[in-house]
Amino acid sequence: MRVIMKPLLRLFGWKVVGELPKFDKCVMIFAPHTSNWDFVLMLMTRFCYKMDVAYLGKHTLFKPPLGWFFRWVGGIPVERSTKKNVVKQIVEQIQERDKVHLAIAPEGTRSKKPYWKSGFYHIAVQAGVPIVFTFLDTKTKTLGIGDFIQPTGEIQSDMDKIRDFYKDKSGIKPELASDIQIEDKK
User: Residue limits of the Phospholipid/glycerol acyltransferase domain (predicted)?
Assistant: First the structure.
């Protein structure tokens, strides 16, 4: 697939940048998430890096006729309409595996929201794994892997670092990008 995807992305004008960190386990956040095309582009990028990535997806994606495909490319179905302690379930899956790179779009949706969902952060903290920044930027037509942090548990301080990395990245529909902050539930 790598032999096909790199030239195909180049043909469409995209450049893949960065190197995959040598972590056996991590949470890989992807932003900005503003279009269904994000998934297609990041899937193509996954093959360029030969990544074995797991990702969370809306449970309805995993029904026939295409459910097999989403599982084949690493999908883990999530029922978002009910509270089922998804963070705890995912942390347990990470701890049970020898290797896992869990890709999450922190925006949680393709529509504009005033904040990112915090699940990615809590998963990383509770599992004791780094957060790797993956991205798409339509201004520069680049896709790839940027920096990473080992979350400290000080969410606002860590979010400052995340915000600093993503502040100049532009999605396919920039007007739908959510604000890079975590909801204050106080």
Answer: 27-136
With respect to residue 181, please indicate whether it lies within any of the assigned structural domains. Answer: no
Closest C-alpha to 110, from 52, 163, 58, 60: 58
Which residues does residue 104 pair with via DSSP β-bridges, in sequence order?
29
* Cis previous bond, 32, omega within 30: yes
Structural domain range at position 73: 2-176
pLDDT tens-digit readout, 55-70:
877 788 889 998 998 8
Establish if 185 belongs to a structural domain: no
- Write the single-letter amino acid at 145: I
- Looking at 32-111, which runs of residues are DSSP E strands? 53-58, 75-78, 100-104
Whether residue 139 is contained in a domain is answered as yes
Domains of the chain: total: 1
Closest CA to 161 of 172, 150, 174: 150
Tokens 């896709």 correspond to 143
pTM: 0.85
CA separation for the pair 101, 50 (Å, rounded): 12
Q: Structure tokens of 79?
A: 């029922």
